[in-house]
Amino acid sequence: MKIKQVFNHNVVLTQRNQKEVVAMGRGIAFGKHAGDEIDEAKVEKYFSLDNEKTSSQFTQLLSETSSENVQLAKDMIDYIKLNLSKKVSDSIYFTLTDHINSLEERAKLKAYIHNTMLWDIKKLYKDEFVISEELVRMVNQHFHAEFDENEAANLTMHIVNSEMDVDFSTTMDITKVITEILNLVKYYFKIIYDEDSLAYYRFVTHLRFFALRLFTDATYENDDTLFMLDLVKKQYAEYWECTLRIRNYLAKVYRYGLCDEECLYLTMHIAKVVKGSKRI
After folding, report:
1. 9 pLDDT tier (thresholds 50, 70, 90)
2. Element (DSSP H or E) covering residue 24
């Protein structure tokens, strides 16, 4: 396999299966130049993007990024994959490398930015946030910086982005909607959530995928659940009323029509999380 472009000792552009790909591996390009062969046994990761524009942007990013920063990005992603039970998209190689470059500039300026959604992010994405705290330690050691949990929140959003394979702004919108719905339920029933409970975890997980559908124009349909609707309305009447408030809110603010199937499952999740919470 011949090198088309050397980005640094660990990253090259090559061709595989008649497609341009980025090959990553410690020292695979050491002492080598365009046209030289690389040892495929040393390649740890092949990276390609189906979108031609994004792929071009990634190769440009790599050409402008120091080998140390590329290696830091890879080490951080390896840590994420080792410690996270969920699968992350390869797009994180692009977004995290780009973010590390911005962190280098901010470290030089000592520009430590406050994240206004810090507490929401800590609550909604606990596993990802714990991982991000270690990533911040790696960044601080690399740049001799003093980033704190606010930066951990930023890195958390990059991980969540990659889990759902959406862009950063969509992830922020999703987080905002989840927080809004959690607050609507909280104040409607006057409760304090047990954030360590399985019911709360399942509720937040349901809301994540629900919000993803909202912002990607996807719908949930399953006619098999319709027969349960009347039963749920009767047996979970107070929770159904809360769901209707949420439906009205989403229609008013986001112009999103909550279908019957979504209302059904939302009602059942609300019932479980409220029953497991403390009433004020």
Report:
1. confident
2. strand 19-24
Side chain identity, residue 243? T
Q: What is the pLDDT of residues 225-272, one digit of tens each?
A: 556 788 888 889 999 999 999 999 999 999 998 888 889 889 989 999
Could you tell me the two tokens for 257?
Answer: 């029509």
Strand partners, 23: 12, 46
34: left (phi over 0), alpha (psi -120 to 50) or beta: beta
Residue that is written with structure tokens 């810090």 in the block:
118
Average pLDDT over residues 73-77: 92
Tell me if residue 115 falls in helix, strand or coil. coil
Nearest residue to 122 via CA among 167, 162, 179: 179
**Measured distance CA(257)–CA(2) in Å, rounded:** 53
DSSP H helices in 110-236: 118-124, 126-143, 149-164, 168-189, 198-216, 229-235
Is pLDDT larger for residue 103 or for residue 14?
Answer: 103
N- to C-terminal Cα distance for the chain? Answer: 66
Amino acid letter for position 91: S
Q: What confidence score (pLDDT) does residue 136 get?
A: 98
Whole-number Å distance between alpha carbons of 242 and 264:
12
pLDDT of residue 53: 55
CA 237 to chain centre: 35
Ramachandran category for residue 97: left, alpha or beta (phi over 0 → left; psi -120 to 50 → alpha): alpha
pLDDT of residue 47: 73
Under 8 Å between Cβ of 69 and 97: yes
Q: Which strand ranges, in their side-by-side order, compose the sheet holding 3-8? A: 3-8, 11-16, 19-24, 45-47
